[in-house]
Amino acid sequence: MEAIEMLQTFNECYGKIQAIAQNPKWLELSNRNDVDSEMKTHLGDVLHYLEGRWSALSRLLR
After folding, report:
1. Which of 5, 30, 48, 52 is most buried when burial is the number of CB atoms within 10 A of its CB?
2. Does the predicted TM-score (pTM) go above 0.85?
3. Which string of DSSP letters, residue by residue, matches 1-62?
């Protein structure tokens, strides 16, 4: 896989996970009392890590 393909894949994953994080059904589920209270935090962490790798990779491509 070429670096540009990796960058595109990170971008696609980020977009899909961001869409989940903003989805009303996800927000409803993650706010319930009978699920892991850290669900939103974990999803936010994934977005943060993807953004970090995307940034590092994009710097290498410049």
Report:
1. 30
2. no
3. --HHHHHHHHHHHHHHHHHHHH-HHHHHHHT-TTS-TTHHHHHHHHHHHHHHHHHHHHHHH-
